């Protein structure tokens, strides 16, 4: 039946009208989100005024009134804006510190190698992750160490055999061999006492000792590089070395400590708890200060630990304690059933941890871990108090240069430091958010 | 297992870094390693110890180390600088991290007697002074009665300030800040009439003001801050060497020997110059150096006056007058025992 004569019935579907103009687009969005009620309108306006009031002087200082070029303080003396010319002149020192200019290609190489290793690592789609990890955790640190310090380390030995042989690489090799043999023997003895087969008990230990020996030999090879002592490192180089070493070392240490603290073996539990509580109870400044000022006094005269090495160890142990607590939080969040299920399948402790518990708990604590990493990255600025000139320290020191000293020089330096730190921390945070979303598929 | 690995690592690190335990003297060690390790100011104190944007070191403290390197190796470049901050400088010297500490350090009794170090001498007689605006119309610190004085908190400057004004019966008002930058900012903003700290610091801080020419440093010095290099206690030979490097710098100026004319002076008949240059007698041998060690020092780095003028003298941005640091024969108090 057709609709002839029934004029009140439409025989065509009306085309959709566009929504009212004030409910779409920018206006609509603003109406909905900014001016939905009188109170919200008022708050929007107040906050907008505040933002303009706060941001305008900043933009005026950093962009509009800024000095972009110049060769000394004269350029910036009368300026009411940032002195970017100074940052430009000093940029190499902010990056390399006092690293000799003709040797800076070594630092560049290390940076490039790091980026080459990191980019495929960070993109989930890229294959060969295991090789990549091997490169980043084994090849890269060794090559970076040799490139940055110059390698060619002279071993002298000195643990014992002091009265028997003059200091020489041979003595060091002998000492190393003796220590290794003792350790392997101890491993065998331990296996025997605990009723496990003695054969093969020291295999892991043997591999580790062998690897250490290879690395030590590599450090001793003369590659013809000029040695650059760590006192001359500085700027972003030091910041990155401290931060990356801290992060890489603290994660496995933290996992072990967290497991140790939840362990059922009383001694392990006590030791882990003690370690964590002691390091967490001490401010990082104190740790660094002890490492830098007190430790050399305890060592016999003439025995000097490298200052940077001391800071690295201090930072790594300190960070490990925090990391342990973060990870312990994740371990506690795993339901008991997961443990029981794993045990019911006949998995050993380490298998259970590696395959069932840790993958789940680490995923839960990604925000916490990243939070630790970010705060560690910023905490690296504290190394200034032990006389290591990190990125911020280098900027502070350079602001005293008579050639560039002006009322705005220091301020410009701080703004620049803030921008660089923000860029690093923000990218870490974004990447972590991305990883979180990716790993969280099962829960969405 | 992990404990074991950890202990191996620590052991290896100890053995790795455990250099030879000090048995030989510092001089022999320095000669063996081929360079002098000098602790310098890492915080960039203009004119004393600072690095420019290329990382080149300059300053009188730095030049003293170069002079020592020249005395030992006849090569002022055979010195490596360790940037140190105020807190760790003494530890660095005690632990053997550096061979000599040359970092604008005040020579005081407590430091000399209890820190395991010995001060070599005075490279710069410093002391607390005042900076004021020229427009204030003041020419002496004694006219500062009732003034507001900017200073850093928690340093001896505040004490000295109180003592000075009290002993001259002058009222004053302290405006104190935690950091040096804040003090300078407050002074620049006109929150106080005078700014007080060590005179060398005043000259350096003045450069950071918008118009340095509008400010002057008053002639009064209200405290004694003799700055000088220091070496570890217990190595007398090294101490003597450092001491006589400084004396050589001073004696050369007194005898009129400069970087430029020292070669001509070789033909001089003056017995003092002959002894200095090693033409007569052999004064280098007892301190473990060659007989022309003093010649090498001056030829490579110049005499004390030259070092002073090049780094902090009137022709530099700092523009510090010689004052107390002039030779004793020219109205100052720099005096060196003779070489004979």
In short:
The complex is a heterodimer of chains A (444) and B (340). With 444 residues, chain A is an all-alpha fold.
The CATH superfamily of the domain at 231-297 and 304-388 in chain A bears the name: MetI-like
Number of strands of chain A: 0
Structural class from helices and strands of chain A? mainly alpha
What is the makeup of the main sheet of chain B?
Answer: 5 strands, mixed
- Total of DSSP H or I helical runs spanning 4+ residues of chain A: 17
Which pair has the most extensive contact? A-B, 69 and 55 residues
Q: Specify the CATH homologous superfamily of the largest domain in chain B.
A: Periplasmic binding protein-like II
The fraction of residues in strands of chain B falls at: 15-25%
Strand order of the largest sheet of chain B: 10-9-11-8-12
Structural class of chain B: alpha/beta
| Helix share, percent of chain B | 25-40%
Please name the CATH architecture of the domain at 231-297 and 304-388 in chain A: Orthogonal Bundle
CATH classification, class level of the largest domain in chain B: Alpha Beta
Describe this structure in words.
The complex is a heterodimer of chains A (444) and B (340). Chain A has 17 helices and no strands. Chain A is mostly helical. Among the domains of chain A are: 104-149; 153-220, no CATH class; 231-297 and 304-388, MetI-like fold, CATH 1.10.3720.10. In chain A, α15 (366-379) packs antiparallel against α17 (409-439). The mean pLDDT of chain A is 87. With 340 residues, chain B is α/β, with parallel strands linked by helices. A five-stranded mixed β-sheet of chain B has the order 10-9-11-8-12, sandwiched between helices. Chain B has a three-stranded parallel β-sheet with strand order 4-1-5. In chain B, α3 crosses α9 (236-254) and α3 crosses α11. Chain B is globular, with a radius of gyration of 22 Å. Classes of the chains: A mainly alpha (444), B alpha/beta (340). At the A-B interface, α4, α7, α8, α11 and α16 of A face α1, β2, β4, α4 and α7 of B.
